[in-house]
Design brief:
60 residues, mainly alpha, 2 helices, elongated
Amino acid sequence: MKATVVRLALGLLVGGALGYGWHRLVGCSTGACPLTATPLRGISYGAVMGLLWALSRKPA
């Protein structure tokens, strides 16, 4: 149970950090990319993707 919580939390944190990094590196100056237009959206999108990745992994 504890390993699952750690895995999900790690997925959220890493995904959020990657989403923020994507926003900072690629960004969006035209407004045509709604998923990374603002830092909060980049973090949110990354966290959701990280959570989905963590949920798709088999437990150890």
